[in-house]
Design the sequence.
């Protein structure tokens, strides 16, 4: 068998002409071989086999689980073409597709990192920034959530350097956004409307205003009491929904609590009324005008 590697081929097919020269032997006649789409020709699997060998050197224990799963799946597909039962029938197009599909996950396969820098930052920040010293809004919204996320990632031990770095950035940003609780005083919270009558099956929007001095948040938490039916509810934005089967005459209490100072609250009283039904008015009979004849 005569093999010729690295021969340029036309993408739409063509003809290859060749002669055989061997020392001490007469030259052969000129031969012609026609071919169609080069990507449909039997594949040279050398490049794919080399890539498979390189990929097999990657250790699962060194990679994050999220990136390893995709990588292992594509590697298995490539091995099936390079070494398995599909090898004999593999075309150049299939070999190239397998090589390309394995390259991308291999490049994206993230190495499991050691979170030393993030661990040091958590160990420094946790005792330094105590929740009691800052407003609840500033601490819970960013610092605590970022700290919890960082600790969870370190415990899982399944993140890359990039992922740990993003957690570190989020934690530092959360600390920069902290507001000292001594930097403000909440005077009072007011709720509007203070009283309301809401019919069964209807809604009522309530708003809250927080007043005080210094830098504080207008955010409040909403609480509902007095309802008899689960369908009667109060949303996080203060929207009251009265269930259609909430008993008429029920007194509901809508309470707003300052997020920065939970001792400061205000409430509104709601009375449930009967579902209003539009009065039915019978159709008005048409008026018929008659004209008396005029006699001359």
Sequence:
């Amino acid at each position: 068998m005569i093999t010729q590697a690295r021969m340029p081929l036309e993408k739409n097919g063509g003809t290859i002409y060749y002669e055989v020269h061997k020392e001490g032997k007469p030259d052969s006649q000129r031969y012609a071989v026609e071919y169609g789409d080069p990507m449909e020709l039997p594949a040279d699997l050398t490049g794919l086999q080399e890539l498979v060998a390189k990929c097999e050197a990657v250790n699962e224990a060194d990679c994050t689980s999220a990136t390893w799963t995709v990588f292992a799946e594509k590697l298995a597909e490539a091995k099936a073409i390079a070494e398995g039962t599909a090898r004999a029938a593999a075309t150049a197009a299939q070999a190239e597709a397998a090589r390309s599909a394995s390259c991308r996950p291999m490049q994206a396969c993230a190495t499991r990192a050691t979170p030393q820098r993030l661990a040091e930052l958590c160990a420094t920040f946790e005792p330094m920034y105590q929740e009691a010293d800052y407003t609840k809004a500033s601490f819970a919204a960013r610092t605590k959530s970022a700290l919890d996320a960082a600790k969870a990632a370190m415990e899982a031990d399944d993140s890359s350097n990039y992922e740990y770095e993003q957690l570190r950035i989020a934690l530092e940003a959360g600390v920069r956004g902290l507001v000292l609780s001594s930097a403000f005083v909440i005077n009072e919270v007011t709720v509007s409307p203070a009283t309301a009558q809401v019919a069964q099956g209807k809604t009522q929007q309530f708003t809250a205003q927080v007043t005080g001095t210094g830098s504080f948040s207008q955010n409040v938490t909403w609480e509902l009491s007095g309802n008899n039916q689960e369908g009667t509810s109060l949303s996080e934005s203060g929207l009251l929904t009265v269930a259609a089967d909430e008993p008429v005459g029920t007194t509901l209490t809508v309470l707003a609590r300052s997020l920065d100072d939970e001792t400061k609250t205000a409430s509104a009283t709601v009375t449930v009324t009967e579902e209003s039904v539009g009065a039915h008015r019978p159709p008005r009979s048409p008026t018929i005008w008659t004209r008396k004849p005029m006699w001359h």
